[in-house]
Amino acid sequence: MRLYLAVITLFLSGFSLKAQQSPAAPKTSSLLWEISGNGMQTPSYLFGTMHILCARDAGLSDSLNHAIDKSSRVFFEIDMDNMGEMMGIFKYIRMKDETRLKDLMTEEEYKRVKDYFAANRSILPLSMMERFKPYFIAAMLSESKMPCETKNGMEEVIMKAVKKQKKEISGLETIEFQASIFDSIPYSQQARELLQAIDSSGKEDTVTAKMLEVYRSQDLDAIEKLTKMEEGGLGSYMELFLYGRNKKWIPEMEKAMKNGTILFAVGAAHLPGYEGVINLLRKAGYTLRPMRHSVAQTL
Q1: Residues 221-242: what's their mean pLDDT?
Q2: Distances from the Cα of 101 to the Cαs of 109, 142, 184, in angstroms?
Q3: Which residues contact 246 (CB under 8 A, 6 or more apart)?
Q4: Mean pLDDT, residues 46-59
Q5: Burial class of residue 121, CB neighbours in 10 A (0-12, 13-18, 19+)
Q6: Which of 22, 118, 132, 251 has the greatest CB tally within 10 Å of its CB?
Q7: Which residues, 6+ apart, have CB-to-CB distance to 111 below 8 Å?
Q8: Which of 146, 265, 274, 267 is nearest to 221 (CA)?
Q9: CA–CA distance, 215 with 149 (Å, rounded to integer)
Q10: Which of the two residues, 131 and 54, has the higher pLDDT score?
Q11: Which of 66, 13, 3, 25 is nearest to 190 (CA)?
């Protein structure tokens, strides 16, 4: 589970991408939203997660507990309760055509990578990640930049509560699909991003700090703004990372909501903006109302 959370952090990560300008969507606040209208008999709920958090920030509010209690089924981005699906990550995160990390770098660059992993503890040793898509290796480094020792993910916290109530867990997409997104980005470009992440290790990580700050504030407009920060020139991939996926999710969400009350828990960067899930559901005829989500932090 921890490996998956490190990898899936990338999908909140519109944080390192820059989007094309879009028409302004209504201002949004709160991570938790009620979905109603459009012929629904009972409301459903939408919650914006952050895939890796300091443990003290990963908690359930009374409102989120209410949404879990009322829901008959919970959807994450993928089915996190399917161990076969989860273990499939090792198959799909490998580069194609037997490409290895050292094939994408000069000898000096590859030595910097080896030296980093020799000096720093990671979830997996570099020898096991030689064929991993470089972005997935970079994702594992992101957890080490969190300003806390104990970490958790909102998906884990929600899933624990859902499983306690023995409710069904499903996914809006598969790990195979998520991993395939990265085949659309040249491996050489991914390798450059990995090198930048390694070269910046040990320096103050202002992006991660800001990301945590805006998530705690539940300011979705600030999350959208941070999502659009340019860091790596990957603006052309916003459709792959966020917008295209959002559009594919809407029919799946509508189908699920016809069969009862559902809680959808997806990366918070998917919620705001003109092409965000909130606005897409509104355009489809639903009413979305922000709910109070206040979590008491624990030390």
Answers
A1: 70
A2: 10, 19, 17
A3: 270, 275, 276, 277, 280
A4: 82
A5: exposed
A6: 132
A7: none
A8: 274
A9: 19
A10: 131
A11: 13
